[in-house]
Amino acid sequence: MANLAREAEIPRKRAESYLGILEDLLISFRLPVFRRRAQRQLVQHQKFFYFDAGVFRSLRPRGPLDAPEEIDGIALESLVAQHLRALCQLRPGGAQLSFWRTRSGLEVDFIVYSPNLFLAIEVKRSRRIDRSDLKALLIDGIRCEPLEKWLRQLRP
Known about the structure:
two-stranded antiparallel ribbon, 17% strand
């Protein structure tokens, strides 16, 4: 929020209220930080997404210093957020969607949590996955799947 306010050159509270308006109009949503059994210092701010990856791509300014891969990666993460949000809302009994990030920079893009489900999901726009890409997950035996296959098998 502080970065947004600084870039827009407006007070932080005003930036917060503008984001609140976008959420009220269902143009955006924010993911809370997953805090269950946190043993590390976690970030305090929520993660912001537009309701649709296409909206992000059309509103995102592009210039000669912007890497297309970076923009595509954020758009892909937005697409996965949309699907996971729908999955959580359609699950019997619901599920919570959040993310996890330490102050040192370790991050898990999405956490899906309910009484009988715990998924930690890291989204990567890459043909090859390196062990360093998964270091925030902290678990061996991690299953990596192509996004298209994974999205096709999603069920509430």
